[in-house]
Amino acid sequence: MAHSLYFIGGGNMVTAIIAAVRRKADQYPVDHIYVEEISQARIDALKADYGVEATTPESAPDADIVLIGVRPQDDVAGVAASVAKRFDPARTTVVSIVAGYTIDKLEDSLGKDFRLVRIIPNTLTTVDYGYSGAALNAKASKEDVDDFLNTFGKVLYVEERLIDVITGFYPPNIVYHFIDAYVDAGVLAGLPRDIARAIALDTLIGGTEFLKQRDVLPQVLLNINNSPGGVGITQAYTLNKTGFAAAIQSAVLAAVERTTALGANAK
Ligand SMILES: NC(=O)C1=CN([C@@H]2O[C@H](COP(=O)(O)OP(=O)(O)OC[C@H]3O[C@@H](n4cnc5c(N)ncnc54)[C@H](OP(=O)(O)O)[C@@H]3O)[C@@H](O)[C@H]2O)C=CC1
Ligand SMILES: O=C(O)[C@@H]1CCC=N1
């Protein structure tokens, strides 16, 4: 049976989700993708690229899923209250991707009748690797959203308190930062940028694949690679001295705190 999706906010994250839904049309057919979006330029691009139908804050078409995709700095409460007026809780499941914005807070405006699922997706939606964290309200069950969520990656159903943590873990940004620094390191040491990029990308994929194949933590493989008094252990010592691990850990902790603060301060 084909589905009908309604997105409020048609920005970067929603665009990445819609791209994935279209890509998985065989496993998750959709009749309609409606998008309610302030920016005319964004809606024009979504229509041209993905055949979405533009709607207004008065629209109330039949929808299996309404996804709230505005920012925590936008009028999230106003959007949720408007959803409650327009859609039928017996028919429609509401999904929110708003960082930091809790189920309790959403229910203050939406009411408690809707099946509501708070998720944290990421933009790795079309490569089948990205993980979404998902937390259900009292009315919702996995079956309400599982097929939809699986169109844009893997799904981890977790306690709601872990949603902010997954948000601050912030896939895939840390990896992008690492690749950026690694490629620059190669260039600094004398490699042409295209060669540094090729080695960095394949090594990241290869290293990850090998860790999965061996089912071990990196320390086991580092012990094989680092010979006594050699190159690898010298590199490890330098990374330790420069606070490499602490830098990553501090960044994740700060991002978790920022997520919670954004949600707490949101309307
Ligand atoms: N980007 C990411 O990697 C991730 C984002 N998220 C969450 O997704 C949400 C969107 O983020 P992102 O896509 O990056 O942000 P964007 O700024 O790209 O998209 C938000 C869009 O919503 C529009 N908008 C604002 N208010 C309304 C409204 N009342 N009705 C309709 N449209 C509206 C904005 O228009 P205008 O700009 O004109 O105001 C903008 O086009 C956020 O809550 C974020 O926390 C979650 C996980 C990952
Ligand atoms: O940067 C942001 O605020 C959003 C929230 C999580 C991912 N992107």
UniProtKB/TrEMBL annotation:
<feature type="domain" description="Pyrroline-5-carboxylate reductase dimerisation">
    <location>
        <begin position="165"/>
        <end position="260"/>
    </location>
</feature>
<dbReference type="GO" id="GO:0004735">
    <property type="term" value="F:pyrroline-5-carboxylate reductase activity"/>
</dbReference>
<dbReference type="Pfam" id="PF03807">
    <property type="entry name" value="F420_oxidored"/>
</dbReference>
<dbReference type="GO" id="GO:0005737">
    <property type="term" value="C:cytoplasm"/>
</dbReference>
<protein>
    <recommendedName>
        <fullName>Pyrroline-5-carboxylate reductase</fullName>
        <ecNumber>1.5.1.2</ecNumber>
    </recommendedName>
</protein>
<dbReference type="InterPro" id="IPR036291">
    <property type="entry name" value="NAD(P)-bd_dom_sf"/>
</dbReference>
<dbReference type="InterPro" id="IPR000304">
    <property type="entry name" value="Pyrroline-COOH_reductase"/>
</dbReference>
<keyword id="KW-0028">Amino-acid biosynthesis</keyword>
<keyword id="KW-0560">Oxidoreductase</keyword>
<dbReference type="InterPro" id="IPR029036">
    <property type="entry name" value="P5CR_dimer"/>
</dbReference>
<dbReference type="Pfam" id="PF14748">
    <property type="entry name" value="P5CR_dimer"/>
</dbReference>
<comment type="similarity">
    <text>Belongs to the pyrroline-5-carboxylate reductase family.</text>
</comment>
<keyword id="KW-0521">NADP</keyword>
<dbReference type="InterPro" id="IPR028939">
    <property type="entry name" value="P5C_Rdtase_cat_N"/>
</dbReference>
<feature type="binding site">
    <location>
        <begin position="8"/>
        <end position="13"/>
    </location>
    <ligand>
        <name>NADP(+)</name>
    </ligand>
</feature>
<comment type="pathway">
    <text>Amino-acid biosynthesis; L-proline biosynthesis; L-proline from L-glutamate 5-semialdehyde: step 1/1.</text>
</comment>
<comment type="function">
    <text>Catalyzes the reduction of 1-pyrroline-5-carboxylate (PCA) to L-proline.</text>
</comment>
<dbReference type="GO" id="GO:0055129">
    <property type="term" value="P:L-proline biosynthetic process"/>
</dbReference>
<feature type="domain" description="Pyrroline-5-carboxylate reductase catalytic N-terminal">
    <location>
        <begin position="7"/>
        <end position="100"/>
    </location>
</feature>
<keyword id="KW-0641">Proline biosynthesis</keyword>
<keyword id="KW-0963">Cytoplasm</keyword>
<dbReference type="InterPro" id="IPR008927">
    <property type="entry name" value="6-PGluconate_DH-like_C_sf"/>
</dbReference>
